[in-house]
Amino acid sequence: MKKLKFISLLSLAVALILISCGGNGGKVKSGGGSKNKLGMNGWKTNDPKGWFFTGKQQKPKGWPNMVYVEGGTFTMGLVKDDVMHDWNNTPRRMQVSSFFIGEAEITNADYRSYVTWLKFVFPPSDPSYKNIYNGALPDTLVWNNKLSRNDYAETYFRSPEFDYYPVVGVSWQQASRYCDWLTDRANESELMKQGVINKDYYANDANNQGANAFNLDKYKANDPELESYVNKQRLQQKSGIRTSNARIQAANRNATAGLVTKFRLPTEVEWEYAALCVQKNRNYNAILGKEPEIEKLRGKKGSQKGMYLENFKQGRGDYSGVGGWNNDGSPTTADVRKYPSNDLGIYGMYGNVAEWTADVYRPIIDDEASDFNYYRGNMPQQTARNADGTYKKVDAKDMKFDRLADGREVYKRLPGSYDRNTVADQRNYRDGDFMSSLEAGYGKEADSAATDYSIYNSPKSQFIVDDKGRVILQKDNKQRTTRVSNTVRVVKGGSWLDTAYWLDPGQRRYRDESKSFGWVGFRVAQDAKDGGTKRTKR
Questions:
Q1: Global pTM?
Q2: At what angle do helices 172-194 and 108-121 cross, to 10 degrees?
């Protein structure tokens, strides 16, 4: 019997060894990546004697004033003192990919450079462009109050003394257009620095006008308009294609070499993750004893002892402190870098202005559908093509606009850029209405928009133009059950107008994407590859 047990154990051990070795007697390899490995086709990638080139691998490179945030897992929606018992803030475990986020909010100077460029390239005096510049301007009337006096409506955005204050009065729609513009300008600047695009591109004044201006679409698609200004030799050097064969160069043309990653608004998950700064407070999966950022509102030592370290409303009628003791020193907004940053080096996550995020608001976070890079409101798009297969460019005559709440029009895409078609609208996916329920399709009403079944029976905004040419908002007088709609976005963080309750990163509010406010600004974000650092033990 003992002999039988010994043979059985021996057989099991041999089987385990074979399994661990792949069952073929091979040895275990340590891993570590695929660099310099022979390709499946028998050639090494980027072999000068071959035909296939992928170019140089780019390391994560931050644009000026951007902060790298290493991805990880955290508890989203966790509010320390949820006195209002908001059911839309239920904590959820989420995984976030690495990303870059703006060191501070976009300033008046940043945004003024944007509208100045629009005015220069698409002059409002040209009837074809009359709405482009005007629709991008902030709504300075957000400072007006029926029972308060200030001159900010005239000075805040234009006066140089407010250059480094956060821009406000910008809707979500306008903020998104700024991100698109910033992507083009950053890449234009970088490619000129690299010598890929001739620095005398704008020596020809025609390239400064209308649809002829540089945009990333043209460059990536090898548009003939730009070909004469692209230094192909320099592009080859930057892309890492080591061959003199013109045919191979053309087949491997890598127009993305050296490009700056697209700018966008941060998602709600990214914003909260960056504000919490959890990756700086953890070691072996445990908190080091550091206080959460929300506990650092008041200084505890040195010259800052007793001082508020964020810009928020301390109480009724108290925006900055008692005369002679201006505790936070700012009754309204302040310089975006006036107060100390968090542990990641990011300024203004706990005050000054609240911020737009990319998401469409929905009360419940569905972690069953996705607990990775959660984002509500996907609308995938693809570049539109003409009948002959070429990319369709936006023309000034057929531009598309969104309507702002104040009646102005804001462009969707600028002339000269490539038009895009929406492939699918997933804003309502699993949003809690009838079409998301288990009973959908069982003989009942199948229309998600039906008021009997939709919990998002929100007001409908409709603008009309009267006989004098004035744009007027037509009020919706129907009985509604909620203000949540497909055009409502998440606003995160507290502001100069808010008490400390709203400073907690887990808190969320929602506002219509077409409206602007004197207490809401925005910052930008970029995707990033993980840093490639060594794995750490739990």
A1: 0.87
A2: 80
